[in-house]
Design a protein that fits this description.
244 residues, single chain, 11 helices, 2 strands, mainly alpha
Length: 244
């Protein structure tokens, strides 16, 4: 008898598929055989897209300062981010802006960075073994204990939540001009011997008003937070040889 394609979780949300969505070994061979950089990039995009169906535990999308608001983040948010990264993203520019490092070659991007990132996302879509998988979920702690989320899922869910909350002024600034503005703002405050964080908290209130109206507000804590986030993300990329 053929093995079932998936299993329903008895006490939790989601399906557990028994067959991998993509084959990583054949993927590497197939992409290497393609004639040019553009065709290889398109092949990677298609495989990242195939990995769009996943279900993280909702608790992964919670943040400490807003525990009662958990947004519904689905594969749609993943696909939107994926398209934006492949159509407009510039990994070398981001690497230079946040780490001050020289560009990597197309060969390294295709044969190492994108492959490692694909493997990372693949692991994110797999289920971690858990003997409490079918535990009845009544409380948030029950959800955590019966979780099948992998370490990669925790990282990817953070990336998706940060992108979900990201101000449009940052999200669609593909040249990262907002980083220059933050650096200039901090330098100005250092020169004037002010309290940068205290001052920034005041500016943050104005910034939130700007976001609500759809306009760019003054530099605030949100922007400093995203600079720290992207710097951390890029350092992770250097450690794991990925390209998020």
């Amino acid at each position: 008898m053929d093995q079932l394609k998936f299993t329903l979780r008895s006490n939790g949300k989601g399906l557990l598929f028994h067959k991998p969505t993509i084959n990583l070994q054949t993927t590497q061979q197939q992409i290497k055989s393609l004639p040019n950089f553009k065709s290889k990039l398109l092949a990677y995009y298609k495989r990242f897209y195939k990995l769009r169906n996943f279900e993280c535990s909702p608790s992964l999308f919670k943040v400490d300062n807003s525990p009662y608001h958990t947004p519904t983040i689905t594969s749609d948010e993943y696909v939107t981010l994926l398209k934006r990264q492949f159509q407009r993203g510039d990994f070398n520019l981001k690497r230079k802006k946040f780490l001050g490092l020289p560009p990597i070659t197309e060969d390294e991007l295709i044969n190492e960075r994108l492959l490692n990132t694909l493997c990372f996302i693949f692991n994110h879509t797999t289920a971690a073994p858990n003997p409490k998988l079918d535990k009845l979920i009544v409380t948030e702690q029950d959800e955590i204990e019966s979780s099948v989320d992998t370490l990669e899922s925790k990282v990817v869910s953070t990336i998706l939540r940060m992108d979900y909350d990201c101000p449009n002024f940052i999200k669609y600034d593909f040249k990262f001009d907002w980083v220059k503005q933050i650096d200039a703002w901090l330098d100005n405050n250092r020169n004037e011997e002010k309290e940068p964080l205290a001052d920034m908290e005041k500016e943050n209130q104005k910034s939130k008003k700007g976001k609500k109206s759809g306009k760019q507000g003054p530099i605030g804590l949100d922007y400093l937070k995203y600079k720290q986030y992207y710097t951390t993300l890029m350092r992770m990329n250097e450690s794991l040889k990925t390209c998020f």
